[in-house]
Amino acid sequence: MMDIFKIMNISASGMTAQRFRLDVIATNIANAETTRTENGEPYRRKIPIFSEYVKMYMGYEEPSGVKVEKVAVDTSPFRLVYDPSHPDADENGYVKMPNVNVLREMVDLINAQRAYEANASVLNSLKTIANSALQIGTR
Description:
single chain, alpha+beta, two-stranded antiparallel ribbon, elongated
């Protein structure tokens, strides 16, 4: 049986992971029009990869939360936009644009917000349970 502090740690790690995801999404949206980065190419969408954090406890594995495994780079092709006046346009007038779809990022943003809120709700419920347990015997 899990104790209340382990549940709090799991929810808190979920909130931390979703906050990190929100930061990556914000970076993607901010760079949705960046046609040239330090490597000379357009910005490539970033994707946070999470995994389960497991601790060994008395010889068995016990789930202990969520961790950021890595930030992957989306290798899907860049969008081509016809804009001959753009400084990064090729000889045919096409500009390579980042592979960021702002609509997809907004959907991911809402999903991350909801996951964050769900973990916050768990923590609030645990707080209520703990306060109720402290009131036992005092009434």
